[in-house]
Amino acid sequence: MTTTTCDARGFFGEYGGQYVPEPIIPILNTLAEAFEKYRNDPDFIEELHYYLSNYSGRETPLYHCANLSEKMGGAKIYLKREDLNHLGAHKVNNTIGQILLAKRMGKKKIIAETGAGQHGVATAATAALMGMECTIHMGAVDVERQKLNVFRMQMLGANVVPAESGQRTLKEAVDEALDAWVKDAENTFYLLGSAVGPHPYPFMVREFQSVVGREARKQVLKAEGKLPDCCIACVGGGSNAIGIFSGFVEDEGVKLVGVEPSGRGLEYGEHAASICLGEPGVMHGFNSYMLKDEAGEPAEVYSISAGLDYPSVGPEHAHLKDLGRAEYVHASDKEAVDAFFELSQMEGIIPALESSHALAHALRIAPNMEKDQIIIVNLSGRGDKDVAQIERMVSEGCFELPHLRK
Ligand SMILES: *Cc1c(COP(=O)(O)O)cnc(C)c1O
């Protein structure tokens, strides 16, 4: 099931670990033991597969973009269609896995924190499915910014708690969720949404997302009789990327590329390219590359896609970067929006703005590759959630709606 792995204390090389207050360590260790016990348990695996296929609709297709590939004039571009999952993104692969684990551990309540709200929605939906009480901690500023997702979580039966301290954003929501966890660890399961945080989360989330890489590897071998030359994914916390990378990391000939958002530019506060432009440091309980402000605190970050604006990155990515096994590049808001329209009009698929960053890099490199070479882009989510934002930006004159097939 595994590929590159971490040591018993959760280190991928020098990254990862458990940099948390003392009382949290035994709770994390109990979680790590439970995951170790169940991840190879045939009943657990069977139940996981049942929900992945019957609830979320796996396996997702590996789709050849014939029109787009021809237009670019180089490599064959394939999409791993994670956008076709229930709830419209890869996040549900992880929430199903963690909720099933919570059930096995006898937990009654789920808590999670969310920034943009997408992880909160996936958590609220899977908690509803499993009949569990669900509380979502969210910065008060984000509650205001993401009203529709807050309402969605409430419709799904979750209790949304705004974090009113400090900057009233994700950091405060994380602190409050951790507090709530420590106060009732007996009954509560903390469901983390990306391959970040203290051990065992980066490892556990990777394992639950590895289904993406396993399927993609099998599908490309069936379709083409060979492995891809390059596999590309966008990187926020890094869960969709590590999920697809895990299927190919042992195949040295497959280039792995993670794409971070360079937003409006490379100046402080204008991007969220944590691994490209950051430096090693500790935040949110783990050691990895991070963007810091002058005081060494997590930097302010920005991206057009709310799902990518995180000032650090999963520790396994930091390790893959140092090993030289994966390459990390960035794409700007503008490049992502161009790719968003390109896929919409050439293939009739509206991608999430997050995924559009990965696609933007594919569009950069495909023309310089041979026609028999293969690129797989992990299309982590669909763009329905982004339509209102794009419409507003077009009507405000930020950019024009292009007509690419005239
Ligand atoms: C949340 C999200 C991301 C970013 O999270 P990762 O953990 O980096 O995968 C990317 N794409 C979509 C569609 C998302 O919803």
Key features of this structure:
single chain; alpha/beta; Rossmann fold; globular; 4-stranded parallel sheet; binds pyridoxal-5'-phosphate; 15 helices; 6-stranded mixed sheet; 406 residues; 2 domains
Percent of residues in beta strands?
15-25%
Fraction of helical residues: 40-55%
Number of helical elements: 15
H/E topology pattern: EEHHEHEHEHEHHEHEHEHEHEEHEHHEH
- The name of the CATH topology of the largest domain is Rossmann fold
CATH architecture of the largest domain: 3-Layer(aba) Sandwich
Profile the largest sheet: 6 strands, mixed
Low-confidence stretches: none
Tally of separate domains? 2
Give Rg in angstroms. Answer: 20 Å
How are the strands ordered across the major sheet? 3-4-14-9-10-13
Overall 3D form: globular
Question: What is the terminal-to-terminal distance?
Answer: 47 Å
- Seen as an oligomer or otherwise, the chain set is single chain
